[in-house]
Amino acid sequence: MTSVSGKSNVDWKAFASRLAPVEVIDEAVLIKKRSRDFFWYSPILNEQLKRCFGDLVALPKSVGEMKHCLQVAYEAEVPVVLRGGGTGNYGQAVPVDGGLIIETTAMNRILDIGEGYVRVEAGALMADINAALNDSGQEMAMFPSTQDIATVGGFVAGGSAGIGSLANGPLREPGNLIEVKGLSLESTPREQVFQGEDVLKIHHAWGLNGAITEVTLRTVPSEDWIACMATFDGYDAAYSAGYALAAAQNISPKLVSVVDARIAEYFPRLKGHIREGRDLVVSYLPAADVPEYRALIANFGGQAELTLSESERQAAKIPHAFEFCYNHTTLQVLKSDRSATYQQIGVPDPLDTTAISGLRQALGDDVWTHHEFLRLDGNLAAIDLPIIWYSGPERLAEINRIYADRGFTVYDAHTNKVEGGGLHGADYTHLAWKKRMDPKGLLNSAKSSAWETVKDLTPEEIEAKAVL
Ligand SMILES: Cc1cc2nc3c(=O)[nH]c(=O)nc-3n(C[C@H](O)[C@H](O)[C@H](O)COP(=O)(O)OP(=O)(O)OC[C@H]3O[C@@H](n4cnc5c(N)ncnc54)[C@H](O)[C@@H]3O)c2cc1C
Fold first, then answer.
1. How many domains does one find in the chain?
2. pLDDT-above-70 percentage for the chain
3. Angle 235-247/353-363 helices, nearest 10 degrees?
4. Range of the domain at 32
């Protein structure tokens, strides 16, 4: 069997038989499919990654089978990339160096549900976890808007926040991620258990420093959530109302998103349900808070268009409200027009409307803002995931500069290096654990620009850089 990646001299047929009894996929067309994620949101990443493929896919069904895959890969010294649902945005799961893709979706058992927690295998789908929690009157503290395809292992290794983060903070907030178990890539793979604040040693490391096998997440009592949509005449009014709703003392939303009217035009499934041409506020709040919500929206001159319980939403055949927030807004636009892209921006404190208004004027007509409110360390914060009509890298750099000059933080969505996006620099704690868990540097190493500079140091020497 020849190398699908074109980057390997390994005899993949022999390698596949050494993996037995683990199920494998060796058809080139299927391997290529499983070598992709949502990197194509970025025209820059699309050019860089569209021809990067793995050589074989393994589908372990248990921790024992996962150990076997890692052991065989270690002995053959082949690059390894872990893969869940493949919904990451930055080519996180793309096997840039070729090699073995280990897909976790067959390791998907819900292991234990107790008060305040759920323990699951890494390949469990986020939607299945929420469904399993339903009977206990609980839900996950947060989940990504891709819950139908994304796995919990992929969320912990590659994601950061989602629906629920306005009430409960991002994944990294203490208590949200209770325990993570990971396997090393060695001749005899070891299980490492990360608990408490140690979970940050493996969280958001893009699968560079261990194969996550099991996760324990915080759960919270579920509510009778109402999906709400309100429209406004102007972004300033919509943003002010969204900010007030997110900050309200008498309303407890778990999601508040503000969407530019021009983006909302790309939501065909909302046509006939909300007024057209108006800026949109999407939220989830407890049923008991609806009267206060209506009053708030009216105070800001808005129209409360939809306030739907889950059964009403289903009867009306309207998608989940969370399909119009986070990176789903970008997806809705891209479904119609592939020339759009996006960026990830941290909004500086204070989150006032005047700053957003001035910014929008400076940005111009090719940038359409979309804000998400969330809580960080207990404080209200906001991010902007704007739609950008891409006209080239120079204009993208200029847009980044306009944001940065006004004190906004750009978390670049157009790089496939872990240091370039959310982390904003090298995480030497992650890399020290990479050295411990992956001494040959086979796990997704191409995604770290700092790894090359530290790979010959001891874990302790790498860790020391974290405190310099
Ligand atoms: C439309 C859209 C909306 C999105 N909305 C959100 C959102 O609301 N919040 C958010 O945080 N993200 C969001 N994302 C990004 C992504 O969907 C989430 O981060 C998701 O949880 C990733 O899960 P996955 O199973 O698809 O991971 P994958 O894409 O398969 O993998 C992500 C990373 O994790 C690694 N990985 C996967 N499994 C393991 C494992 N078992 N052990 C070690 N490493 C592993 C991979 O190597 C890769 O680096 C969105 C993306 C899209 C396209």
1. 2
2. 99
3. 140
4. 12-103
Of the residues 81, 103, 125, the one at which a domain ends: 103
- Cα within 13 Å of Cα(330), Cβ side: 26
Any domain includes 415: no
Ligand 1 near 158 CB (within 6 A): yes
Domain shared by 246 and 383, yes or no: yes
- Indicate the burial class of 180 (C-beta count within 10 angstroms; 0-12, 13-18, 19 or more): buried
Distance CA 193, CA 242 (A): 40
Long-range contacts of residues 313-318, Cβ cutoff 8 Å, at least 24 apart: 313/227, 316/273, 318/269, 318/270, 318/273
Dig out the tokens for 37 from the structure. 């994620």
- We report the CATH number of the domain holding residue 248 as 3.40.462.40
CATH for 94:
3.30.43.10
Taking only the tens place, the pLDDT of each residue in 207-237 is 999 999 999 999 999 999 999 999 999 999 9
Ligand 1 contact, 86 CB (< 6 A): yes
Strand partners, 216: 119, 179
- The last residue of a domain, from among 71, 103, 135: 103
Q: Please tell me the distance between residue 245's alpha carbon and the centre of ligand 1 in angstroms.
A: 29
In a domain, 88, yes or no: yes
| Tokens linked to 467 | 């405190």
CA of 292 to the centre of ligand 1 (A): 35
**pTM score of the predicted model:** 0.96
Does the Cβ of 385 fall within 6 Å of ligand 1?
no
**Which residues are CB-neighbours of 228 under 8 A, at least 6 positions away?**
281, 282, 283, 284, 285, 290, 293, 304, 306, 307, 308, 321
In a domain, 137, yes or no: no
| Nearest CA-CA partner of 153 in 202, 190, 112 | 202
pLDDT value of position 463: 95
Instruction: Indicate the top mutation candidate among 38, 94, 109, 146 to test ligand 1's pocket, ranked by most ligand atoms within 8 A of CB.
Output: 146
Sequence length of the chain is: 468
Which atom, in ligand 1's list, is nearest to the CA of 41? Answer: 53
Q: Does 111 fall in a domain?
A: no
The residue whose CA has the least distance to atom 36 of ligand 1 is 154
Closest CA to 57 of 110, 7, 103: 103
Tell me what pLDDT residue 423 has. Answer: 62
Q: Report how far ligand 1's centroid is from the alpha carbon of 127 (Å).
A: 14
Go through 111-150 and write b for each residue having 16 or more CB atoms within 10 A of its CB, e for each that does not: eebeeeebbbbbbbbbebbbeebeeeebbbbbbbbbbeeb
Sorting pLDDT into bands at 50, 70 and 90, what band is 422? low
Distance CA 307, CA 436 (A): 51
Q: How far is residue 434's CA from residue 443's CA, in Å, rounded to a whole number? A: 8
**Residue 468 pLDDT grade (very low, low, confident, very high; cuts 50, 70, 90):** low
